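# step 3/5: fold
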Amino acid sequence: MSEHHAAIRFTHSSGSFADKSFSRDHQWLFKGDQTLLASSAPAYNGNAAAVDPEDAFTASLASCHMLTFLAIAAVKGFEVLSYADDAVGTLDKNAEGRMSMVKVVLRPRIVFGERKPSSAELADLHERAHRACFIANSVKTEVTVESQTD
């Protein structure tokens, strides 16, 4: 078991709560003195230049899948030279009619070293990574993988 921490800090800086024009900007603080500007999504009066929770959710799933994939690939004897993913998360109403991150599509592009997996081995690597990903195991969101290799 392990614990993971994130600190959130908001200070009213501009706009009005009365007319809902207040700034949604806030800080996410992580270990190692890492600070990230966050806000709500632009569709919810947020700052388009900041990370929003929906983007972070999508990135969290993509990152967890990648890290798990890399670990499994290493065990199977595959060297990954590069891994790039342009993941897309979809916010929509779920089956209960509530707004939810209903789907995340991972689109990893992977370059392997000398030994390359077959299509079946690649699909198995992604399936194993999905089943072992801590974040994917923690959510109801549909996660699909559209993998490409070079």
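# step 4/5: annotate
The two ends are 37 Å apart (CA to CA).
# step 5/5: archive (pending)
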